[in-house]
């Protein structure tokens, strides 16, 4: 059964979305466009964070010329609308420039296309490109690892790095991991700064206790309602 994507804003520990490293000879117009795309990608997801203040939420509404109350009532609808528009924009950009990596738009703007693809149904189309870009250090390898994990989860397979979680009806889990014994070693090699146990608390709160599940257990737990493309 196909379901909506999990509403989890992206957590980048050790990677800032809002600080920029100086970089020469970048495409400033493209950077400006991608920065706005990245802002809108995160604007609605961040509002699911209970720690976010009302002032911050109102600033987002003002930035997007939205009525605050209407925005709050229609967060999911607006997020899906912007996701669709952003995906079209990113596909056009990639067709023209290739992946807009660090050399072209600097950091952290090089994460913009990744974020949009990660929140779309076109991951299978661009996952090989993201891998090549990450191997060339135009994008942190950790982000490729996150996209690979999400791709595997949507295929109903075990993830590698333990970066993907799911929550239904108040039940939160880290998606089944292929090699849970060595997952923290793999995470470290990929650039993740935390163990899967630490990361799970960032996703679901300090009270969350990581537990390893099998695919069969998860299917039974969620009554066969597995996330898919």
Automatic annotation (TrEMBL):
It comes from the Bacteria. PROSITE patterns: PROKAR_LIPOPROTEIN (PS51257). InterPro entries: DUF6624 (IPR046732). It holds the Pfam family DUF6624. Keywords: Signal. Residues 1-24 form the signal peptide. This is Lipoprotein. It comes from Kaistella antarctica.
């Amino acid at each position: 059964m196909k379901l909506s994507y999990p509403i989890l804003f992206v957590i980048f520990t050790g990677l800032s979305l809002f600080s920029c490293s100086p970089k020469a000879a970048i495409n400033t117009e493209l950077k400006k466009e991608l920065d706005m795309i990245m802002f809108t990608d995160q604007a609605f997801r961040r509002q699911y964070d209970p720690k976010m203040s009302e002032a911050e939420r109102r600033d987002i509404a003002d930035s997007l010329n939205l009525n605050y109350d209407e925005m709050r009532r229609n967060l999911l609808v607006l997020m899906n609308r912007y996701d669709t528009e952003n995906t079209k924009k990113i596909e056009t950009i990639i067709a023209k420039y290739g992946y807009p990596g660090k050399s072209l738009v600097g950091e952290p703007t090089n994460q913009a296309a990744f974020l949009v693809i990660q929140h779309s149904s076109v991951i299978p189309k661009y996952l090989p490109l993201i891998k090549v870009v990450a191997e060339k250090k135009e994008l942190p390898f950790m982000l490729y690892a996150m996209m690979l994990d999400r791709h595997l989860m949507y295929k109903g397979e075990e993830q590698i790095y333990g970066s993907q979680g799911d929550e239904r009806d108040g039940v939160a889990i880290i998606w089944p991991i292929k090699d849970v014994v060595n997952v923290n070693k793999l995470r470290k090699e990929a650039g993740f700064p935390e163990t899967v146990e630490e990361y799970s608390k960032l996703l679901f709160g300090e009270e969350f206790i990581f537990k390893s599940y099998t695919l069969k257990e998860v299917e039974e737990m969620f009554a066969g309602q597995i996330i898919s493309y």
